[in-house]
Design a protein that fits this description.
With 456 residues, the protein is mainly α. It has a domain of 255 residues. The protein has 20 helices and two strands. A two-stranded antiparallel ribbon has the order 1-2. Helix 6 runs antiparallel to helix 15 and helix 10 packs parallel to helix 12. The chain starts with a helix and ends with a helix.
Length: 456
Amino acid sequence: MSNIRIFKSNNLLQNIIASLTVSFVALSLGAAFGILSGRGAFAGMISAAVIASITSLFGGTRIQCSGPTGPITAVTAVLVAFAQDEILSKVPFANPDHFVNITIFLMAFLLVVFGLLRLGKFITYIPNVVISGFMNGIAVIIWIDQIKKLFGNTTRFEGSFWLNLLLAVASASLVFIFPLITRKFMPRYASLLSATFITIIILTVIAFSFNFNVEKVQLTTSLHSFSDFTALIVAQWPSNWSWTIISLAIPFAIQLSILAYLDTLMTSLVIDKMTKEKTKPNKELIAQGIATGAVAMIGGIPGAQATIRSVLMVKEKATMRLAGVLVGVFALIEMVLLQDAISLIPQAVFSGILIKVGYDVFDWLPLRLYLKELFKKPSVLLHQFFSRHDDEKIFITNREIIFIIGTALITILWNLNYAVAIFTILFYLHNKLLNKKNPMRDLKPIAETESFADEI
């Protein structure tokens, strides 16, 4: 009996340590995504805490960490910009923040409906070349947004242009290089050290020590007591639910809910492969819907099951559902205790981190393999433009790269939902009408490969 108790206590401690480690990553990325969304660092951080706890408690993936993600935040930024720039011209006296919250409530409702209607199984019907394309499109959108903040005329960070640029470059470089250094020189502790968190600390200390003239993170809201939390809910609860506002919100809600569906269930496939367990997709969608509704009540930003954070949970040897719940609890505690320190962080540091996020979102594997074959056998690829490769060593064909690029371009220039719908239809029409004998091979995005999990 004593051995059993020791095992249980060690297992619990292991899960607590894993939760604490991932909470710093979740809080750091939450702040970055909050800034990217236009709702601020506070909104991103509190959303990271709330979403992580709720989805871990009720979700269909037992070991996971959900929260704001790059793709969903990029679309949320478009929603927030619409609310701030256009909603008053369409609905006089409307509250822009409340419009965003109504949209997120509708998104939450749709996710719950997806789960109740058992639509989780349809993730397998979306072609992976289309998923790869929209991942790339979202990555480019994130990069464009950061370029505007660093180089734009009206959107540029306040303070010294060169210092902001220096911090952004240094931030992006550190989050890329730091994991390589730790894996080489400190492999035992590599997984315990968050490159994002360490980068924020180092560059904030440097900027503060030398009194850099750069724009800092502004926490427009703060939590010091339970009354602050209840006041936040009261302030963020929408008072105008008119049909005009709802009709304007529905297109954004549909786009966000579909993206959350894809983001969540694609990540669950990765985690299932690592843990040898099987996600209950409909239960997971309902949990994501509940969490999304919760962040709408507090003026937060929506999210999904997050690949990097979920993989990190598994690699930290989390074995209990409690681990994911504690990620949110620890993140909330850290957020309350570190509010003064957070206001010292330069905004440009998060730009560098988001550039790395865009890199992580981008599906590099198809492009890398295509270019490798293009330089190796250019004549073969040109010859095979309208036919299937018989050589299985060639991973991607010309037609597959066209689907990926086409989906990415429509995602960037027009609309994510249209991109996914159009190229999914084209994919099946192509296979049914033009390529009956040799259907186009479906391409696994990097998020579904073992190498992706190994790289994190």
